[in-house]
Write a structure and sequence with these properties.
The protein is mainly α. The protein has two domains: 7-197, Growth Hormone, Chain: A (Up-down Bundle); 207-396, MFS general substrate transporter like domains (Growth Hormone, Chain: A). The protein is built from 13 helices and two strands. The protein has helices at residues 3-6, 14-47, 52-80, 84-100, 107-135, 141-147, 150-163, 173-191, 219-251, 257-285, 289-308, 312-340, 347-396; strands spanning 207-208, 217-218. A two-stranded antiparallel sheet has the order 1-2. Helix 4 (84-100) packs antiparallel against helix 5 (107-135).
Length: 403
């Protein structure tokens, strides 16, 4: 055992890992029901019917506000040297603004409230993920990444819960979302005092060696590869999220909405135990990059099956392979990102820059898809996405976590 390994901080207890995973999932519970169901419904009420242009405007401006706010919030938590007060402030601000959305009486008010809500939400989320880097040692970051797969699964379940017929009055749905978010976030923040480790704030070495290779790779090269690899997979994942139902109906006219929703939910739920198993394996064997490469390759394989699909069964098989692999990739990537960032004193800011890989695809992919599909069909789109996934795997291949 090396000296660095023997000096590695002890892992966090499982109860804190579970509470942190639930707190991180609180972010998904905050935005998934709102952006996928409640916001479109609120706009339809105000506009007198479905208004795709209005929804696109609100979504784009909200994503822009989220991008900038996440970087700013992470930077503030870096400068202040503390994370939990910012997380609590963001929780309160975002919750109040979410409830206020019910009283919006015009499109302009909705736009302003959503942008302000995104600022509050990212005031919570930016420092929250940076706090994970302060608390969890490298030897546990694979398992941490696996636990983060809980977030999209709970987000999808929350969307179903708050819209389930008769469970809660439509006027109270936003209040229910705010309460669910608080219930998920508060336990970790209130019980997590003193969990940050001084060792995890020490400066990183200047280089990282490729896995199983002799030549060193500069830190900025590792970070740039990680950023680009996530962006490429997020572009494919975001495009599929937006147009899954349309594609399935192109293959099988009349395919029901709940069918697509059930597949989506099943994939996200299945990704949680799979991500945990793979994350724990990567921790035990010290191979954090290999699962990412294999997951990106599996994404490409799933997309190739989708591109070749001529029937519903083959299409769904390809989608399940793609979506499950993408969910595992994104969860484990988040954990490994905390390993490779070289400056703990700027961890919040740097994670905010990584967050652009989450928000930028959502701003550009729907429009790009609309431009591509009429000319090349869905098969052409999936071939493009498969190429992006292969490029992601190529970027990551040959790198490993820092020693």
């Amino acid at each position: 055992m090396s000296a660095s390994a023997s000096a590695s901080p002890a892992p966090q207890p499982r109860w804190f890992l579970a509470l942190f995973a639930l707190a991180f999932a609180g972010g998904a519970v905050a935005y998934v029901p709102l952006l996928t169901v409640l916001l479109p419904q609120r706009l339809a009420e105000l506009q007198g019917g479905e208004d795709v242009a209005a929804l696109a405007q609100v979504t784009f401006l909200g994503a822009l506000a989220a991008s900038l706010a996440n970087i700013a919030a992470g930077t503030l938590s870096d400068v202040s040297g503390t994370r939990r007060p910012w997380i609590l402030a963001g929780l309160v601000i975002s919750g109040l603004l979410l409830v206020a959305l019910e009283d919006a009486r015009s499109l302009d008010e909705v736009v302003l409230l959503i942008m302000a809500w995104q600022v509050g939400l990212n005031l919570m989320l930016g420092p929250l993920l940076a706090w994970a880097g302060d608390c969890f040692p490298d030897s546990q970051k694979g398992e941490l990444g696996g636990a983060l797969a809980l977030a999209p699964a709970l987000g999808a379940l929350a969307g179903s819960l708050v819209t389930y017929g008769g469970l809660v009055a439509p006027a109270a749905r936003l209040e229910l979302v705010a309460l669910l978010v608080a219930a998920l976030v508060l336990p970790a923040v209130l019980l997590g005092g003193g969990r940050a480790r001084a060792e995890l704030m020490a400066p990183r070495p200047a280089v990282a060696a490729p896995e199983d290779a002799a030549s060193p790779l500069p830190w900025r090269g590792v970070v740039a590869r990680m950023w680009a690899a996530r962006l490429l997979v997020q572009v494919a994942e975001g495009g599929m999220f937006a147009f899954l139902l349309y594609w399935l109906r192109a293959l099988a006219p009349g395919y029901p909405e709940h069918g697509a929703a059930n597949i989506f939910s099943l994939v996200l739920l299945s990704a949680v135990p799979l991500s945990l198993l793979v994350g724990r394996w990567s921790d035990r064997h010290g191979r954090p990059v290999l699962p990412l490469v294999l997951a990106a390759l599996a994404c490409a394989a799933g997309l190739a099956v989708m591109a070749a699909a001529s029937g519903l069964a083959m299409a769904i098989t390809g989608y399940v392979l793609f979506a499950l692999s993408a969910a595992v990739f994104l969860a484990l990537h988040a954990g490994h990102t905390l390993r490779v960032l070289p400056a703990p004193q700027h961890r919040g800011r740097d994670l905010g820059l990584f967050n652009l890989t989450n928000t930028v695809p959502g701003m550009v992919m729907p429009g790009l898809t609309v431009l591509l599909v009429p000319h090349f069909g869905y098969s052409g789109l999936f071939v493009l996405f498969a190429a992006l996934a292969l490029a992601s795997a190529a970027l990551l291949a040959g790198t490993r976590r820092p020693a």
